[in-house]
Amino acid sequence: MSSVREWLDKRFPIFEVIERHLTRHMVPRNLNINWNFGSLLLFFFVVQIISGIFLAMYYKPDTATAFGSVQHIERNVNFGWLIRNLHIVGASGFFLTAFLHIGRGIYYGSYQSPRELVWWLGVILMMALMLQAFTGYILPWGQLSYWASTVSTSVFSAIPFVGDSLVIWLRGDFGVGNPTLGRFFSLHTTIIPIGIIGVFIILHLSALHRAGSGNPDGVDPPESEMIPFHPYYTWKDLVFILLVAAFYFFFVFFQPDFFSDPVNNEQADPFKTPVEIVPEWYFLPLYAILRAIPNKLIGLIASNGAIVILFFLPYLDRSPIRSARYRPLKKIVTWLFFINFILLGYAGSFPPEGLPLTLSRIFTVIYFLYFAALPFLPGLEKRWGLIRPLPGEG
Amino acid sequence: MRFGTGPAVLLPALLLAILVTGFSLKNPLDSPEDVQAARRGSFAFRAMCQSCHGIDVLGIKPATGKKRLREKFGVVPPDLSWITRARGKGVRGEKYVYDLLTGYVATKEKNKVLPNLAMPDPGVNAEMAADIAVFLRRTADPNAGQRRLLGYIVISYTLILAAVVYLAKRAIWRDLK
Fold first, then answer.
1. Residues in A touching B14 (Cβ below 8 Å)
2. If pLDDT is split at 50, 70 and 90, which confidence band does B25 have?
3. Is residue A272 among the annotated active site residues?
4. Does A265 touch chain B (CB under 8 A)?
5. For A70, how many CA atoms within 13 A lie in the half-sphere containing its CB?
6. Separation between Cα atoms, residue A362 and residue A289, nearest integer Å
7. If A348 and its partner were Cys, which of A53, A145, A153, A288 is the partner (CB 3.0–4.6 Å)?
8. A186 touches chain B (CB under 8 A)
9. Where is A385: in which H helix or E strand?
10. How far apart are CA A215 and CA A111, in angstroms?
C-alpha cells in the first residue's frame, strides 16, 4: 500500500488533495443545520447531471418531435418516468436549497471579509442556475415552455436601439421555434452545467477552503474549536442529505407534478395563448418585480438588479460583526426581508392587476429598501446600544 | 439524548408534506377495479370519442380526417394522450374529464365546465364517463402503480439508511466531548 502511495505521490497529487480538502481541512465545530445546504446543493447538482445524461440520450430537440420524445421517455424507456421525475423535482429541490443557502449567507454575514470572493462566486452560480432552469424549461415543448420562453425573451425588446435585434439574436428566429429549441438544448446540456456551474462550484469551494468556513457566531474560533471536515462533517452532511432525499423521493414517487404547471403537459401551440403564463415557482419573486414596474425597461433592470445587488452586499454591510445573532436590528430586518421575498413570490403568482399588483409593488420596494437600509444599521445599532456581547467578550 | 436539528426539522416536514398533499396507504391507481374500469373505458373511447379524437401514444388515430373536423367544428380536436395530466395534477385531471363529459346542459352555454365548448355532447352516461376518465388517466400516467410501489421501497430504504448513518455520525462525534 505504501509503495503504491509513494508511486502516486511522485506523479499525481491525489492524496495531497484529499488531505487538504477533507482530512486536514479544519472547520469550526459549532456549525448548525444552516451549514448543511452547501453539500446538499452538490447532491442535487450530481442528481441533475446524472439524470440529465440519461434524458439527453432519448430526448429529441426538434419542435416536431420534442413533446413526443418526452412522452416516449415516460412511457417506453425503462424507468424513464423515474429519471424524468428525478430531474423535474430535482430542479425545484436545487432552487429551494439555493435560496436557503443564500439566506444563510445573508443572515450570518457570510459575505463579509475574508469571504467576499466565496460570496461573489456563489452569486454567479445562482445566476447560472437561473439560466440553466430557463434554458431547460423550453425543452419539453409544452404550452408554457413555448409561451414562457416567448414572454421572457421578448422582455429584452425593451432595451433601447438594439432590443428588437437582440430578441431575434436570442431566439435565432423571429419567434421562438426550432433554432431556439436547438440552441437552448445545447446550452442546457453543455456549457452551462459543465462549463459554468461545474467550474464555478470548483472555484467557489477553492475560495471557501482558502478563507475557511464561517460559523453561526461569526467570530473566528480558537484552534481548539476546529475539527477536520472528514470524518465529522462528511458524516453529518450525509445524514442530512439522506433525510432530504427521503423528502425528495416522496415528491418523485408520489407527487411528481406537485411543483409543475399542468398546462405544460399540453403540446406547444403558437396559435393558442394559455389563459395565464406563469413561470415556475422559483422565478415568481423576480417575475413579480418585473411586472410591478409599469415601464418595461426599468422592470427588466429591476428584476435583474434584484440578483445583481447581492454582489454589493460586502460593501453595503460594513458592520464589524458578521452574525445577525449579535445584531438584533439586522436580525429583525433580515427576517422581514425573507418573509417579504416569499410574499413577493406569492404576489407574482397572480395576474398583474388589482390587489396583487399593488402588493407586489409594495414588496418590491421593501426588497430594495433592505439593501438601502443595510449601510445604516451598524450606526443605529451602536447608537441604540443594541449590540449583544460577542462570545469571548463576556 | 439530544436529537439533531436535521432529523428534528425534516421528519415532521416529511409528515406534513404527506398530510398536506393528500396521501392514502392504499394504491387505488393500480387496483384490479381500476384496470377493469380502464378496459371498459377503452371500449367506450373507441365507440364514443375516436371518431374525432386520437391517442398518439397508443397509436390510435381519429376516424375522421383533420381537414373535415376543422371544417365541421372550427378547431382540430386535441390529441388525448396526456389530457388528464394537462388539465389537473394527480387525479384532478381525471375528475375534470368526468365533469366535462357529464357537464352538458340544455342551455346556450352548452357545458358547465367549459362554456361554449366546440365539442357536441357525445351522449355518454355517468358510468361510461367515469370509465373513459380512468382510461385516459391510465393512458397519461401508465406507471402510477409501479411508481408508488417503488416509492414505498425507496423511501423506507432511505430512512433506514439515514438512521444507520445517524448512529454512525453520533459515534464519530462522541469523541469530541
1. 243, 246-247, 250
2. low
3. no
4. yes
5. 27
6. 10
7. A288
8. no
9. none
10. 12
Please state, in angstroms and rounded to a whole number, the distance separating the CA atoms of residues A228 and A240: 18
**B78 in A contact zone (CB under 8 Å):** yes
Residue A236 is a catalytic residue? yes
Confidence (pLDDT) at B15: 81
Which of B9, B27, B57 has the most A C-beta neighbours within 10 Å, making it the best mutation to test the interface with A? B57
| Residue B125: exposure state from Cβ atoms within 10 A (0-12, 13-18, ≥19) | exposed
A230 touches chain B (CB under 8 A): no
Set of cell numbers at residue A26: 479544519
Instruction: Name the pLDDT band for A394 (thresholds 50, 70, 90).
Output: low
Q: Which of residues 53-72 of B touch A (CB under 8 A)?
A: 56-57
- Exposed / middle / buried, residue A10 (Cβ in 10 Å: 0-12, 13-18, 19+): exposed
Phi and psi angles of residue B111, each rounded to the nearest 5 degrees, phi first: -140, 135
- Measure CB to CB from residue A262 to each of B14, B89, B151 and give the nearest one: B89
Instruction: Measure the CA–CA gap between A124 and A196, rounded to whole angstroms.
Output: 9
Is some CB atom of chain A closer than 8 A to the CB atom of B9?
A: yes
> Catalytic: A280?
yes
pLDDT in tens, A112-159: 999 999 999 999 999 999 999 999 999 999 999 999 999 999 999 999
Residue type, A224: S
Q: Judge if the upstream peptide bond of residue B122 is cis by omega within 30 degrees of 0.
A: no
**Which positions ≥6 away from B110 have C-beta within 8 Å?**
B104, B116, B117, B121
Count Cβ neighbours within 10 Å for each residue of A76-110 and write b for 16 or more, e otherwise: ebeebbbbbbbbbbbbbbbbbbbbbbbbbbbbbbb
Count the Cβ atoms, other than its own, within 10 Å of residue A118: 23
Question: What are A21's three cell numbers?
Answer: 480538502
Q: How far apart are CA A76 and CA A154, in angstroms?
A: 36
pTM of the model: 0.94
Look up A230 and say whether it is catalytic: no
Rounded CA-CA distance A75/B82 in Å is 11
Going A369 to A371 to A372 to A378, the CA torsion angle's sign is positive
Contact A35, A104 (CB under 8 A): yes
Q: Do residues B93 and B101 lie in contact, with contact meaning Cβ atoms separated by under 8 Å?
A: no
Prior bond to A114 cis, omega within 30? yes
Query: How far is residue A103's CA from residue B99's CA, in Å, rounded to a whole number?
Result: 44
Instruction: Suggest the residue from B165, B170, B174 to mutate for an interface test with chain A (most A CBs closer than 10 A).
Output: B165
Burial B136-163 (b: 16+ CB within 10 A, else e): bbbbbbbbbbebbebbeebbeebbeebe
Largest CA distance in chain A: 75
Q: Are B55 and B139 in contact (CB under 8 A)?
A: yes
* Residue pointed to by grid coordinates 444563510: A104
